[in-house]
C-alpha cells in the first residue's frame, strides 16, 4: 500500500507519519521546498509533542519521504488549508490546486480523499474536475471526504483514538476509505455521504463556537450586573443537564474562528445562530479592548500619571505558542495603537521573542504594572497571587474573582 499526502502542515504531516508507522509506504508532498527539505532531514516545522521523534524514525526506516511532486500511489489525501477571503467566503483554491496536481497520477482502483475542512459540495466539485479531465476514470476510482478532528498538542493520541466520519461518494468508496483508516485508527469509523461529512466537520466547530459565545455573552451580562461569572457558571453547571463552557477574551485559532463562516456565507438566511455566535465572540474581543482602554484612561485621571500596563498572553489559547487569529493579539494591538507611547509590557511566556512585540518576563511585568490584563489563561499565570494594590482585568479567569 502506497499513500500520497498533499500538504505537510499541522494535520497532513502527522497523519502521513502515523500512516507510515503503520506499514504504509508514504510520500508527503508540499509546495514549500523548505518544508520538504526540513521534513526529509527529520525536522518538524511546527511544535507537536512527540512527533519529531516519530518523523526521524519513519525517514530513517525509508517508509516516508517528502517531495515537491506526487508519485503514482494507491491512495491520495488532500490535506491543505482552506482559509477565507476578505468577505469570509471560503477559499478552496488550495484544495483545487492540490486536486489538479494529483490528476495526472491517478489510476484505476485508486482512492482519492479530501481531509481539508471544506464547504458543503467541495468533494462533488473536485470529483467533477477529476472526471472532466480524466473521463475514463469514472466509476473506476473511489472518492471520499474524511475530516480530521484532532486537538493541536495532542495530535498523536487523537489521530489514533478519535472516532472518524467517513463520507463516501458511494458505498464502495466508504468501504475502501474505511479500510484505509482502519489501519491506524482505533476509534470508531462512522460511514456517511460526502456532503454530510463536510457539514459535520463545520458543525463540530460551529457548535463549540456557539457554546463559547453563550459563556462570553454571560460574562458581559455579569459584568453589568456585578456578578462573578465564574461562580455563576460553576453553580449553573451543577444542574445535571447544563454544561456551560468558560468565557475568555474571544475565540481564536485557525478552526473555530473560521469554520462557522463556511456555513454562514453559504446559508446566510438560515444560519442566524451560527452567525450571531461569531459576532458575539468577535464582540467579546472588542469589549475587552474597550475595557482595557477605559481602565487606563480612568487611572490617568485618578492618579494624574500614566499607568504601567501588563498585557498577559498573546497566544490564542492556554499553554501554546500559536498566535493565529488570536484575540489576545488583537486586543494588545488595539491598546498599543491607542496609547502608543505608554508603558505597556507584553507577556507571552511560550515565546522567546516576537518580531513585532517586545516581550517581558511575566513575573516582572506583574510586579511592575499598575494595571494587569489577563488575556490567555496560561498555567504559569495561575502561580501569581492576587494583589489588591493593582487594577486587575481578568478576562480569562486566572483568579476567578469579579
Ligand atoms: N475557548 C474559550 N472557552 C472555552 C474553550 C475554548 O474561550 O471554554 C477558546 C480558546 O481560548 C480558543 C478557542 O476557543 O481561543 C478555540 O480553542 P479550542 O481548544 O476550543 O479549539 P482548537 O481551535 O484548538 O481546536 C478545535 C477543536 N474542535 C472542537 O473542539 C469542536 C479540534 O477538535 C478540531 O480538530 C480543531 O478545532 C480543527 O482543526 O478544526
From TrEMBL:
<dbReference type="InterPro" id="IPR017476">
    <property type="entry name" value="UDP-Glc/GDP-Man"/>
</dbReference>
<comment type="similarity">
    <text>Belongs to the UDP-glucose/GDP-mannose dehydrogenase family.</text>
</comment>
<dbReference type="Pfam" id="PF03720">
    <property type="entry name" value="UDPG_MGDP_dh_C"/>
</dbReference>
<dbReference type="InterPro" id="IPR001732">
    <property type="entry name" value="UDP-Glc/GDP-Man_DH_N"/>
</dbReference>
<protein>
    <submittedName>
        <fullName>UDP-N-acetyl-D-glucosamine 6-dehydrogenase</fullName>
        <ecNumber>1.1.1.136</ecNumber>
    </submittedName>
</protein>
<keyword id="KW-0520">NAD</keyword>
<dbReference type="Pfam" id="PF03721">
    <property type="entry name" value="UDPG_MGDP_dh_N"/>
</dbReference>
<dbReference type="GO" id="GO:0016628">
    <property type="term" value="F:oxidoreductase activity, acting on the CH-CH group of donors, NAD or NADP as acceptor"/>
</dbReference>
<feature type="domain" description="UDP-glucose/GDP-mannose dehydrogenase C-terminal">
    <location>
        <begin position="310"/>
        <end position="401"/>
    </location>
</feature>
<dbReference type="InterPro" id="IPR036291">
    <property type="entry name" value="NAD(P)-bd_dom_sf"/>
</dbReference>
<dbReference type="InterPro" id="IPR036220">
    <property type="entry name" value="UDP-Glc/GDP-Man_DH_C_sf"/>
</dbReference>
<dbReference type="InterPro" id="IPR008927">
    <property type="entry name" value="6-PGluconate_DH-like_C_sf"/>
</dbReference>
<dbReference type="GO" id="GO:0047004">
    <property type="term" value="F:UDP-N-acetylglucosamine 6-dehydrogenase activity"/>
</dbReference>
<dbReference type="InterPro" id="IPR014026">
    <property type="entry name" value="UDP-Glc/GDP-Man_DH_dimer"/>
</dbReference>
<dbReference type="GO" id="GO:0000271">
    <property type="term" value="P:polysaccharide biosynthetic process"/>
</dbReference>
<keyword id="KW-0560">Oxidoreductase</keyword>
<dbReference type="InterPro" id="IPR028359">
    <property type="entry name" value="UDP_ManNAc/GlcNAc_DH"/>
</dbReference>
<dbReference type="GO" id="GO:0051287">
    <property type="term" value="F:NAD binding"/>
</dbReference>
<dbReference type="InterPro" id="IPR014027">
    <property type="entry name" value="UDP-Glc/GDP-Man_DH_C"/>
</dbReference>
<dbReference type="Pfam" id="PF00984">
    <property type="entry name" value="UDPG_MGDP_dh"/>
</dbReference>
Amino acid at each position: 500500500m502506497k499513500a500520497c499526502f498533499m500538504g505537510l502542515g499541522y494535520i497532513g504531516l502527522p497523519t502521513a507519519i502515523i500512516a507510515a508507522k503503520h506499514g504504509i509506504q508514504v510520500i508527503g508532498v508540499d509546495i514549500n521546498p523548505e518544508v520538504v527539505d526540513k521534513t526529509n532531514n527529520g525536522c518538524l516545522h511546527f511544535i507537536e509533542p512527540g512527533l519529531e521523534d516519530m518523523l526521524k524514525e519513519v525517514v530513517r526506516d525509508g517508509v516516508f519521504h517528502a517531495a515537491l511532486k506526487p508519485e503514482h500511489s494507491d491512495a491520495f489525501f488532500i490535506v491543505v488549508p482552506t482559509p477565507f477571503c476578505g468577505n469570509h467566503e471560503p477559499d478552496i483554491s488550495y484544495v483545487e490546486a492540490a486536486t489538479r496536481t494529483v490528476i495526472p497520477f491517478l489510476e484505476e482502483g485508486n482512492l482519492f480523499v479530501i481531509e481539508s475542512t471544506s464547504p458543503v459540495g467541495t468533494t462533488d466539485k473536485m470529483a467533477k474536475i477529476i472526471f472532466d479531465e480524466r473521463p475514463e476514470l469514472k466509476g473506476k476510482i473511489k472518492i471520499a471526504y474524511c475530516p480530521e478532528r484532532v486537538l493541536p498538542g495532542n495530535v498523536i493520541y487523537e489521530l489514533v483514538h478519535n472516532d472518524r466520519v467517513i463520507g463516501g461518494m458511494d458505498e464502495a468508496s466508504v468501504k475502501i476509505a474505511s479500510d484505509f483508516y482502519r489501519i491506524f485508527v482505533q476509534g470508531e469509523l462512522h460511514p456517511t455521504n460526502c456532503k454530510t461529512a463536510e457539514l459535520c466537520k463545520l458543525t463540530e466547530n460551529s457548535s463549540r463556537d456557539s457554546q463559547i459565545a453563550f459563556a462570553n455573552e454571560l460574562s458581559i451580562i455579569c459584568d453589568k450586573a456585578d456578578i462573578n461569572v465564574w461562580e455563576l457558571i460553576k453553580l449553573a453547571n451543577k444542574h445535571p443537564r447544563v454544561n456551560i463552557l468558560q468565557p475568555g477574551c474571544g475565540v481564536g485559532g485557525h478552526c473555530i474562528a473560521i469554520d462557522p463562516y463556511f456555513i454562514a456565507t453559504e446559508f446566510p438566511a438560515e444560519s442566524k445562530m451560527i452567525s450571531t455566535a461569531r459576532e458575539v465572540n468577535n464582540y467579546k474581543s472588542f469589549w475587552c479592548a474597550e475595557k482595557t482602554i477605559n481602565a487606563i484612561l480612568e487611572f490617568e485621571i485618578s492618579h494624574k500619571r500614566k499607568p504601567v500596563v501588563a498585557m498577559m498572553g498573546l497566544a490564542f489559547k492556554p499553554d501554546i505558542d500559536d498566535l493565529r487569529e488570536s484575540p489576545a493579539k488583537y486586543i494588545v494591538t488595539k491598546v498599543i495603537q491607542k496609547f502608543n507611547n505608554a508603558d505597556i509590557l507584553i507577556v507571552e511566556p511560550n515565546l522567546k521573542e516576537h518580531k513585532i512585540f517586545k516581550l517581558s518576563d511575566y513575573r516582572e511585568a506583574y510586579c511592575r504594572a499598575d494595571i494587569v490584563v489577563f488575556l490567555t489563561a496560561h498555567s504559569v499565570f495561575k502561580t501569581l497571587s492576587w494583589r489588591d494594590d493593582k487594577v486587575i482585568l481578568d478576562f480569562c479567569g486566572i483568579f476567578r474573582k469579579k
